[in-house]
Design a protein that fits this description.
A hairpin with a 5-residue loop joins strand 12 and strand 13. The two termini are about 20 Å apart. The protein has a single domain, classed as Carbon-nitrogen hydrolase (Nitrilase/N-carbamoyl-D-aminoacid amidohydrolase, 4-Layer Sandwich). It is of the alpha/beta class. The longest helix has 16 residues. It contains seven helices and 14 strands. Pfam families: CN_hydrolase.
């Protein structure tokens, strides 16, 4: 059976998303980066219903020790500023991930804020990166999968290295996910893995993949950008370059259900 065409032109059924591919260079003071992230997110919110940022953008994904030093609780000033922006602009904001401090532990935590400025849910990264970067030394792994009901559909949350573990995404589908939000700090030297795996997770799960990567250099590692929106058939709807930018795209939440009905591979699992 040949893949059917899915319409991506803006219409009342679509949701606009903006991926803020933020630069996190180690010579920028954290407060300056917060102000810049808020400004870029505000600009994005003027044209989109969803704004999404990268993983650990405050210090940069590969400056994990720096992230640990900047960790704060979920009711701290960083989250509050994005809550205020979400409420003011009436836009959903996925903050990417931040270093969350709770009870003496630090987590790599994604924060999803609704258009009323309320933290709808959080996701603590399950798969910590043990190869390089020190994440295992600083962070504590999460223990729970998270799927939230959003205007983009039932949306599963994941972070960076999680992408290499397909069973996590299939488990999110088992919980009802028809779309994935992925915040990342993926390095340039393995960016082709990123591009292939994003497509694979979308195709095998017949789900939207909305993935925001960072750019910039931390601790000698350059991030690769290439944030992307990929539809449930694996078509790249939009892809960023390798520098800081805001990427806009339209997502039709019903496309996943349509494709799963027309080509029901998930039904044939054993």
């Amino acid at each position: 059976m040949a893949p059917s065409a899915i319409q991506h032109a803006p219409d009342p059924a679509t949701v606009s998303v903006a991926l803020v591919q933020l630069a996190s260079d180690e010579d920028e003071p954290p407060q300056d980066r917060v102000e810049r992230a808020l400004a870029l997110s505000s600009h994005a919110a003027s044209s989109a219903g969803f704004v999404i940022l990268p993983e650990l953008w405050l210090a940069g994904a590969f400056d994990v020790h720096g992230s640990g030093r900047l960790a704060q609780p979920l009711d701290g000033p960083l989250v509050q500023q994005f809550q205020e922006l979400a409420a003011r602009s009436q836009t959903w904001i996925h903050m990417g991930s931040i270093a969350e401090r709770e009870d003496g532990l630090t987590f790599n935590t994604s924060v999803l804020i609704n258009a009323q400025g309320k933290v709808l849910c959080t996701y603590r990264k399950l798969h910590l990166f043990g190869f390089e970067g020190g994440e295992l030394e600083v962070m504590t792994a999460g223990e729970e999968l998270v799927v939230a009901t959003t205007p983009a559909g039932r949306t599963g949350l994941a972070t960076c290295y999680d992408l290499r573990f397909p069973e996590q995404f299939r488990s999110l589908v088992d919980l009802g996910a028809t779309a994935f939000f992925l915040a990342s700090g993926w390095p340039a030297e393995r960016i082709e893995h990123w591009r292939i795996l994003l497509k694979a997770r979308a195709i095998e799960n017949q789900a939207w993949m909305i993935a925001c990567n960072g750019v910039g250099t931390q601790c000698g590692t350059k991030l690769g950008g290439r944030s992307a929106v990929i539809d449930p058939l694996g078509h790249v709807i939009a892809e960023a370059g390798t520098e800081e930018e805001v990427l806009f795209a339209q997502v039709n939440p019903s496309a996943a259900t349509t494709w799963r009905t027309e080509f029901p591979t998930l039904r044939d699992r054993r």
